[in-house]
Amino acid sequence: MSDKSSSNAYWAANLRIIGISLAVWFFCSFGLGIILRPALMGIHVGGADLGFWFAQNGSIYVFLVLIFVYAWRMNKLDREHGVEE
Amino acid sequence: MDQFTLNLIVVGITFAIYIGIAVWARAGTTAEFYAAGQGVHPVLNGMATGADWMSAASFISMAGIIALAPAGGYEQSAYLMGWTGGYVLLALLLAPYLRKFGKFTVPEFIGDRFYSGGARLLAVVCLIVISVTYVIGQMRGVGVTFSRFLEVSTDTGLYIGATIVFAYAVLGGMKGITYTQVAQYVVLIIAYTIPAIFISLQLTGAFLPQLGLIGTHTASGVEFLTKLDQVVMELGFKAYTSETTNMLNMFLFTMSLMIGTAGLPHVIIRFFTVPKVSDARSSAGWALVFIALLYTVAPAVGSMARLNLTTTMWPNAETGNALDGDAITRADIDTNPELSWIRTWEKTGLLTMTDLNGDGQIQYFAEPAAVTAANKALAAATAALAAAPGDAAATAAVAEATATRDAALAAAMIGDQSMAERGWIGNEVTKLDNDMMVLANPEIAALPGWVIALVAAGALAAALSTAAGLLLAISSAISHDLIKGSINPNISEKGELLAARVAMGFAIVVATYLGLNPPGFAAQVVALAFGLAAATIFPVLMMGIFSKRVNKEGAIAGMLVGLVFTAVYIFIYKGWFFIPGTNMLADIPANYLFGISPLSIGAVGAVLNFAAAYIVSGMTKEPPQHVQELVESIRIPRGAGVATGH
């Protein structure tokens, strides 16, 4: 495999991971926290509803996990493609 | 020991620590000055980034904005999601690649990637507007905190704060700033969370405020948020958890804050300081860990302060209905030592209580807009009559305004009775500033004196750490991008370091001047800072990394379109260059295009920036080979060396 196609494969894999991560990022904040809140009113979380909780607390926890999972996945990908530092 | 001495001791100790760190971490080279020699551990860098990011707005204002929002606290979740979600974008889309690029400043990347001194200059202009805007708010935060807790004037407080920042920022550069910010982070997070834990225990019995927020209110046995909603709705306010009436605007506001956060130069340069590309990724995660500690507590702080404040004003609300009992009396406020905080805050002007109907009580409730308008009209008519005593027309006008006002009072229902029946003529908490909620929180909850002193030190840490980060971003843009980049490329390292220090000193003087003479529009310009970061810097950085095709012409066109569109939309509602009276449309939701407020327009500006850049790039020549190779190289972590200025 030439250098060029290897780095293209690395970049394509990176874009796929970014795409999935951004989908999660969007779903927990804009999705659950804003757009879907009215539809999820029935699900109660201690005095409020699920959408409210995601908007004020839940999405932040998801963001956190997301960044560390992304960093871990990317470090693995770097090694698989031999481009780590 | 009295509160003042305690405040002085705690603040004095923290300041001594900051100066000590600055002396220990002096910068000797430009690499140390701009990027701390890239030797900062990701966890420490994350902490420093947290302190850098969490400004006076996060520490002092945000919980109050959420707690007191007229449309309910939920809608303001945009701040919580926006100011944290931006770090996901940083980690995924910008930080690792900019670290691999291995230079010191944001304009430098834009200049190299788009092979254009013009693009670099445009980026410098955006950076300076964004950072100067931001720094004014920090200097004001320092002044307000000093004047409230250390009994000096706001101006003296500002001078003291500016001297401290000057000492460690100019001396230490990024290295000194980074290590000082680690200490400041520790101070500010302890100061924010300790009162929150105390209050959460008092109100809900939950140790973690995050659990208290969704826990049960001990005194009434009802779920905490349900209790808060009941209490505020009884007094005519919108429920804390009520749904937004403008989902599109909330969506765009959150998006603008997110991409604005990811586009703020003083945040981005933090990721130039870590040793490796993989560290840049995890450093964004660590930064968010430390930021989330404050941001997940903030809604609890805000909502609990709101409940405490309301039950202080209406003692019966603690266990039953507010209106079943009497409101707090003016005599009680003036004599009860537990309520002395009301008197202290009244002195600052951030809180005013006026017994409008003269019944000796202070009634706090949501005054309907019709009553506010009728009261205003009556006051105007009365003033006109006073100016022309005996004038028949003026007398008739007063009589008419009185009748209108009385009708408004009769129509305004608070609970099961109208304001007229209750003998109320208006909300007697005539001013309640967002900014006092966090600072007064420990006093409202009657916490010990050292907690109050800690909050003062925390507010100062938040404002000073952000100010230092901004000043560094400004100084590196001037010395590195402007002087070395275009005016005198042959400047020696020593000369550049001197220029950076002079630029920073100059920036501090300007910031202090603007803090002393704040343009009346200080609050509005923050909208401009986020709007511009979102509409100019973020898109151009992202395209520079993810597209090989976007060229010089495209990037400049995109930045200009984003800049002009966003600025003009804000100016239409806030006045041209914020000059009062020059706005073309009143700043009210009815006038907004599709209901999009000027605060939320940055996201739209960003979309236009992307569109313009792609269209113009498509019509012009593709970037030269060496630029395409540069893009290839920043996409791959291997080979990231130490950053250089050349």
TrEMBL record, chain A:
It comes from the Bacteria. The keyword Membrane applies. InterPro entries: Na_symporter_ssu (IPR019886). Pfam families: DUF4212. Keywords: Membrane, Transmembrane, Transmembrane helix. Residues 8-84 form the Sodium symporter small subunit domain. The keyword Transmembrane applies. The chain crosses the membrane at residues 20-40, 52-72. NCBIfam families: Na_symport_sm. This is DUF4212 domain-containing protein.
UniProtKB/TrEMBL annotation, chain B:
It is found in: Membrane. It is a multi-pass membrane protein. One of its GO terms (cellular component) is plasma membrane. Keywords: Cell membrane, Ion transport, Membrane, Sodium, Sodium transport, Symport, Transmembrane, Transmembrane helix, Transport. The chain crosses the membrane at residues 6-25, 53-72, 78-98, 119-137, 157-174, 186-208, 250-272, 284-305, 450-474, 495-515, 521-542, 554-572, 592-616. One of its GO terms (biological process) is sodium ion transport. CDD domains: SLC5sbd_u4. InterPro entries: Na/Glc_symporter_sf (IPR038377), Na/solute_symporter (IPR001734), Na/solute_symporter_CS (IPR018212), Na/solute_symporter_VC_2705 (IPR019899), Sodium:Solute_Symporter (IPR050277). Pfam families: SSF. PROSITE patterns: NA_SOLUT_SYMP_2, NA_SOLUT_SYMP_3. GO terms for molecular function: symporter activity. Belongs to the sodium:solute symporter (SSF) (TC 2.A.21) family. PANTHER family: NA(+):SOLUTE SYMPORTER (SSF FAMILY), SODIUM/PROLINE SYMPORTER-RELATED. This is Cation acetate symporter.
